[in-house]
Design a protein that fits this description.
The protein is of the alpha/beta class and 396 residues long. Helices cover 40% and strands 20% of the residues. The longest helix has 32 residues.
């Protein structure tokens, strides 16, 4: 697939329409695609669909790609983040033509008589190039799992331990493979994707791995979602799965990791966000570098602080672990006390929590290159400065 310079100009000139109205356009897209291909509902997180983060993430992905149509290599970090999620969800090359067909139909419907043949052809060419980038990246990720095809899909695991580790409740699961096959290694910061069936529908969700790879089991933590819309997968597992039950998962994926040679590593967690950061802290412990780590964990109450005793024993200096237990967001003074010019900062929590921390770091003029974020929502739905409101624009 190729794209002409004239088509690039069209894509760039019409990309602002997607930025301003992307959530509306992609909502049309999802309605069309799921109407024609209801089997694809098994791939997409329906909770994210309801709250709008999935359509917004798709819109932002396409917008940023369009804005960088002349130098798509600039998008490689974001491409790899999404490609890992796609591999974990078993997105396949044959899904991309379906997405492209329905995306163009959604753009055409939204633009109405403004949707000229030239505009639609330009966006078709751009989508073809973007799709091939993802297909190629995802093929490499599938290939890394080895030659055995069954290792590239959902694999049966057994829950060998289920325990409540904090109020919420927050429940930790320890999983082992049921068929005696290999456990694929991973780096701390990655996640596995669990699959459950509720009624007639399959549901999937990513869960961060809690500790460095031990060669035998995977361990994740799951929080009961009490707010609407409730988390379908999390609540189903907490309410209805027990030790000895079988559950399906894909092998670990994800791009979140420790920065190399960090002289000081500051971990800032909001609530359940501690799950992914705990594995990075344990990695530093294994590497004999735990003295470089500082943790700030904000929770509603002390009883909501998962793995508090374990982390206190690892972070054994008084200034290495601070627990904020009144439910407030972290204020600037707390961060300024531990932040240095060479600090690598790792943040995980709710979007509002992460935005608040990022604002503080910006006020401190901390380098963006030293700030690392792991988002539970689709990543491009939480990027600042992107409009998530549908404000209708028109082509002049």
């Amino acid at each position: 697939m190729s794209i002409t310079d004239a088509q690039k100009d069209i894509v760039r000139s019409t990309a602002p329409i997607l930025k301003e109205n992307g959530k509306e356009i992609t909502s049309i897209f999802y309605k069309k695609m799921f109407g024609a291909h209801p089997e694809l509902l098994d791939i997409f997180n329906l909770t994210n669909q309801k709250v709008g983060t999935q359509p917004l993430a798709l819109a932002n992905t396409i917008y940023f790609a369009a804005e960088n149509i002349d130098h798509l290599e600039a998008l490689l970090p974001q491409v790899m983040l999404i490609a890992h999620k796609h591999r974990a969800l078993m997105v396949l090359p044959e899904h991309y033509p379906i997405v492209g067909e329905n995306l163009l139909a959604a753009i055409k419907e939204f633009l109405g008589d403004k949707a000229t043949t030239e505009i639609l052809d330009a966006w078709a060419a751009a989508y073809g190039i973007i799709a091939q980038i993802f297909i190629d990246a995802e093929k490499k990720l599938y290939d890394e799992l080895g030659p055995d095809e069954k290792d590239k899909g959902f694999i049966a695991f057994r829950i060998v331990k289920k325990e409540q580790v904090a109020c919420g409740p927050i429940v930790a699961l320890t999983l082992e493979r049921t068929d005696g096959g290999k456990m694929h290694p991973y780096h701390p910061g990655q996640y596995i994707t669990l699959r459950v069936k509720v009624g007639e529908r399959i549901h999937l969700r990513h869960y961060s791995l809690l500790e460095p790879f031990n060669g035998k089991t995977y361990r994740v933590a799951i929080k009961d979602e009490v707010n609407e819309p409730k988390g379908i997968v999390s609540n189903e597992i907490i309410d209805n799965y027990k030790e000895g039950d079988q559950i399906f998962a894909t092998f670990p994926a994800g791009t979140f990791t420790l920065a190399p040679n960090g002289k000081h590593n500051l971990f800032i967690a909001g609530g359940i966000g501690i799950t992914v950061l705990s594995s990075l802290i344990q990695q530093l412990k294994q590497q004999g570098q735990i003295e470089t780590a500082t943790l700030i964990h904000s929770v509603l109450t002390k009883e909501h602080a998962a793995f508090a005793d374990e982390l206190k024993s690892i972070l054994n200096q008084p200034n290495q672990y601070q627990l904020i237990t009144d439910g407030r967001l972290i204020d600037k003074n707390i961060i300024e006390k531990v932040l240095t010019a060479d600090t690598q900062v790792y943040i995980c929590g709710s979007p509002s929590f992460m935005n608040a921390v990022e604002d503080i770091l910006a006020q401190c003029n901390h380098p963006q290159s030293q700030i690392h974020i792991e988002a539970f929502q689709p990543s491009l739905s939480v990027i600042k400065g992107v409009n998530d409101q549908s404000t209708t624009k028109s082509i002049q």
